[in-house]
């Protein structure tokens, strides 16, 4: 049975998409079957997976939003093949920003994503969900549908605040037997790390609070990682010798070990 892993933080721009993308691609490169689900109307992950030509912005006939609105019984997840071996994806586009308005008629809408994933869960080893910087019903859907969550954080106060907000929702989900009492907290991945005293102080705070849940290594701030997005490449093909590639390789393996630990 495939495992569903969500990358989250209520704060924007902390490298959720960068991390979900590179780590999912890493797992595919070691033979795991991966399904990415883009839950962000910005569609950054969708663009990374669909084409390596930055001038292309394909239009999708069916997106995750269409599946949500029409519902799991009538409309299965619109799964597409990506340009990577072992990797499929479910695209998002701007329509997803209407999620709340367009699903207001649906009873029990927190189960929509879980019900959509259920029929395909066995076709994959890992289903990797890229979450938006938000706390609302899309995040609740991701929490209900997931086996584990990875918090992604930069070492600064707004990002730490964003993690605390997600932890608050996580605790609500755990406390309610009808939601997802078995949801696991896999760990906290610290990204865009710089070598100065403020960064060190926030890393210290995160380590004190999250202890062994802090994933090593940290991902340092790095021009090659930033450039790889403009060229729509994963870091392993953009520059396999870059330190960002090594850090994501090691952190991605570490996350896999944690997911597989019972
Ligand atoms: N380690 C890094 N070094 C340098 N730049 C980085 C690093 N990680 C991410 N970035 C850059 O930071 C920006 C934000 O990254 P990303 O889009 O992955 O964040 P996000 O958390 O998914 O944002 P959003 O909340 O808007 O979805 C991107 O331009 C990305 O290229
Ligand atoms: Mg993102």
Roughly what percent helix? Answer: 40-55%
Mind telling me the C-alpha Rg?
17 Å
CATH architecture annotation name: 3-Layer(aba) Sandwich
Mean residue pLDDT: 94
- The fourth-level CATH homologous superfamily is P-loop containing nucleotide triphosphate hydrolases
**How many strands, which pairing sense, and closed or not: the largest β-sheet?**
7 strands, mixed
What is the total domain count?
1
> What sequence of helices (H) and strands (E) makes up the elements?
EHEHHEEHHEHEHEHHHH
* Named CATH topology: Rossmann fold
Q: How many helices in DSSP terms? A: 11
End-to-end C-alpha gap: 14 Å
Helix vs. strand class: alpha/beta
Q: Would you mind describing this structure in some detail?
A:
The protein is α/β, with parallel strands linked by helices and 262 residues long. It has one domain: Rossmann fold. 42% of the residues lie in helices and 13% in strands. The chain is built from eleven helices and seven strands. The chain has helices at residues 16-29, 44-50, 64-70, 99-102, 112-117, 137-145, 157-175, 197-210, 223-230, 235-238, 243-260; strands at 3-8, 34-38, 80-81, 87-90, 126-130, 148-153, 184-190. A seven-stranded mixed β-sheet has the order 3-4-2-5-1-6-7, sandwiched between helices. Helix 1 packs across helix 11 (243-260). The protein is globular and about 50 Å long.
